[in-house]
Amino acid sequence: MSEKITHEESHGFNRDVINYIQNASAHGLYEIRGLGAKRALPSFDDLLFLAGSASRYPLEGYREKCVTKTVLGTRFAKNPIVLDMPITIAGMSFGSLSANVKEALGLAATELGTTTTTGDGGMTQEERQSSKTLVYQCLPSRYGFNPDDLRKANAIEVVIGQGAKPGGGGMLLGQKINPRVAGMRTLPEGIDQRSACRHPDWTGPDDLVIKINELREMTDWQVPIYVKIGATRVYNDVKLAVHAGADVVVVDGMQGGTAATQTVFIEHVGIPTLAAVRQAVEALEDLNMKDKVQLVVSGGIRTGADVAKALAMGADAVAIGQGVLFALGCNNETYFQNGEHHSALADYKKLGTAPGFCHHCHTGKCPVGVTTQDPILEQRLNPEVAAKHVRNYFKTLNMELTTIARACGKSNVHHLEREDLVALTIEAAAMAKLPLAGTNWIPGVPL
Amino acid sequence: MDLSKVSVRELNQYLHHDLAKAGVKHVNITNPDGAHNIAVGLDADVSVDIQGHAGYYAAGMNKTANVTIHGNAGTGVAENMMSGTVRVKGFASASAGATGHGGTLIIEGDASLRCGISMKGIDIVVGGDVGSYSAFMAQAGNMVVCGNAGDALGDSLYEAVLYVRGEIRSLGADAEEQKMTEQDIKKVGDLLKKAGFDYNAKEFKRIASAKKLYHWNADAKQEY
Fold first, then answer.
1. How far is residue A390's CA from residue A112's CA, in Å, rounded to a whole number?
2. Cystine design at A97: which of A101, A207, A321, B171 (Cβ 3.0–4.6 Å)?
3. A383-407 and A99-112 are packed helices; what angle lies between their axes, rounded to 10 degrees?
4. C-alpha to C-alpha distance for A308 and A44, rounded to whole angstroms
5. The domain that contains A306 carries what CATH number?
6. Which residues in chain B are closer than 8 Å to A147, comparing Cβ atoms?
7. What was the pLDDT predicted at B220?
8. With bands split at pLDDT 50, 70 and 90, how would you rate the model's confidence at A4?
């Protein structure tokens, strides 16, 4: 009788779960990693556009005008932000990213007519010089935060939370705290640096009103104030941000990325961007503040289709972080240095990973020089070459966005609307409050 | 400047822009009546007297200027201060001197919760007591407390050093009492003198980080 090996894998205790338990039992530590949620979530992929046909009139895809101009911060600021496209670069810190990357993002954003954003750790000279329009974050840690840089900013973003870790602070591990990063953050070199999860000088929405006014007074009411929230109780949080005086609300869904956070946080806290954007828009509409306070949506935006769906759902613009990192070369097999491509495979292997799977931003040993402070590794990214890649990426997204908008008969991408969308799954239909494709059924809404 | 006749916006506009042009070296602010954001963002060699109580963030992000509040101060007085001096003649509410990078904050009365939270180089001298969670995640600078301290003093301290003359209800995670050195005594003496407080520097205890949480590790208990 021949022996037969069976391969019946447990659903509850599959190889990934067994691996997690065995790692936990070996080390007694939770995992910290970079990037965003890897689990399958309801997303913009679960929505489809209903383009023009007999009942709607499409525009010619390559020729007829389709406006992408976007204005943010029209509520109180004397100088709102005017963008050439509704696609911006999300806040990412110097510390998690190298100075070369921050410079590259500034160069790309300037060329594209959009904004880039500082992060935890303050504003670097490189990014200020390379960015025509720069958003300056006011984070709980206030690392590197100072009035001189505040006054150099074109907009200020008060960060309450981040989609990858709403309710949690950051962790920049010691290997990324080089002398410059340590100096900007007023911390010793090489320590594992924690970022606070709540602001030091205000505790609730009533205080936030006064804090926002302080920032306005500091900057003589010139620049817009954004408030960024990690997506959890979005409907109430957006309402409170509006009441607090925000010009722009940024809602970051749970697919948003991070430089280093506990995996349990990344995968189990927050709600998907798809659900968040609908709640945010409802909050603005219920306050009669839609189009008076602008909405920026982030968290897992990858393609022009994602941008178009976010806008159709009611966002005014999107912010992209992880997509930008991939455009810079994150998870590439090679890096480009001294005029030629070099293999990075051996360095991925040293980290115990491979291109396409790497999330080791937290180690500071990025094989392609994106998320590192290592003086040798950071040379693997040339700011001008990297800026070109980001520019190409955003241009592609913008072309895809206008292609869809024209197909839906819109001469302005901001005319995309919920009526242009249907949902592919019941979950997406319920979260987005859109009809299931081919039906008039919206779960939870009486027919 | 009479805040019963001009708005805080007009006052700050004057302080930010017109003051330097006019070569003014002293500004007297009357009838503050607890207004918020008085004299935020000063960046001039000027002395400012606020004749009464101030609301939130008075003298926030101050640079260079010397500001005296002749009354009590609301939440976040001198928050994120860079340089200069801010003196509160009365009591200070929560988060006094929060995230301050430099300069000196003197509070003649008590300071409430979270005094010196995330301080980054500022010197804070408090004539009375400080509330709980003071110097939470304090990164650099010195805090001298002539009275008592509440719960969880110096929780998750980095390099800031705290000196307390009175009782400490409890220390926070990773904060510990350390031996006062001659350097500490001199430093405390200098700060007391600057603040105008007549206490013996040798009476103070030194609280600083044990540095056991500087690196994330499996041996650190979750209930610190």
1. 9
2. A101
3. 40
4. 10
5. 3.20.20.70
6. 41, 43, 61, 63, 80, 82
7. 60
8. confident
What is the distance between the alpha carbons of residues B18 and B23, in angstroms, rounded to a whole number? 9
For residues B117 and B141, the answer to whether their CB atoms sit within 8 Å is: no
Mean pLDDT by runs of 10 across the 224 residues of chain B is 97 93 93 98 96 98 98 98 98 98 98 98 98 97 98 96 98 96 98 97 97 76 55
Q: φ, ψ for residue B186 (rounded to 5)?
A: -65, -45
B96 close to B107: Cβ distance less than 8 angstroms:
yes
Q: Quick check: is A18 in a domain?
A: no
Residue B37 to residue A210, Cβ atoms within 8 A: yes
Which residue spans within B10-139 are E strands per DSSP?
Answer: 26-30, 47-51, 66-69, 85-88, 104-107, 120-126
Chain B residues with CB-CB distance to A under 8 A?
8-9, 12-13, 16-17, 36-37, 40-41, 43, 55-57, 60-61, 63, 75-76, 79-80, 82, 94-95, 98-99, 101, 114, 117-118, 120-121, 136-137, 139-140, 156, 158-159, 214-218
How far is the alpha carbon of A225 from chain B, nearest alpha carbon, in Å? 16
Q: Which residue of B has its CA nearest to A142?
A: B99
Share of residues in chain A with pLDDT > 70 (%): 100
Paired strand residues for A296:
A250, A317
Give the residue extent of every domain in chain B. 1-93, 127-224
Q: Do B57 and A214 touch (CB under 8 A)?
A: yes
Please indicate whether, in this complex, the C-beta atoms of A214 and B56 are within 8 angstroms of each other: yes
At which residue do the structure tokens 């408030």 appear?
A227
Q: In 3D, which of A96, A123, A158, A74 has the Cα closest to residue A366?
A: A96
If you write DSSP's letter for every residue of A268-282 in order, what string do you get? HSS--HHHHHHHHHH
Q: Are A96 and A165 in contact (CB under 8 A)?
A: no
Best residue in A158, A172, A211, A214 for a mutation probing chain B (most B CBs within 10 Å) = A214
Least CA distance to B41: which residue of chain A? A218
pLDDT in tens, A139-171: 999 999 999 999 999 999 999 999 999 998 877
Task: Report the number of distinct structural domains present in chain A.
Answer: 1
Residue A386 in domain: yes
Complex prediction ipTM: 0.96
Strand-pairing partners, residue A20, are none
Q: Which domain covers residue A74, as residue numbers?
A: 44-432
Structural domain contains residue A410: yes
Nearest-CA neighbor of A432 among A325, A320, A297? Answer: A297
pLDDT, residue A180, reads: 86
Residue A357 lies in a domain: yes
pLDDT tens sequence across A53-90: 898 899 988 789 999 999 999 999 999 999 999 999 99
Q: And the tokens for A298?
A: 């982030």
Number of Cβ within a 10 Å radius of residue B90: 16
Spell out which residues of chain B touch residue A201, defining contact as CB-CB under 8 Å: 57, 75-76, 79, 94-95, 98-99, 117
Exposure string over B162-179, b if 16+ CB within 10 A, otherwise e: bbbbeebeebbbbbeeee
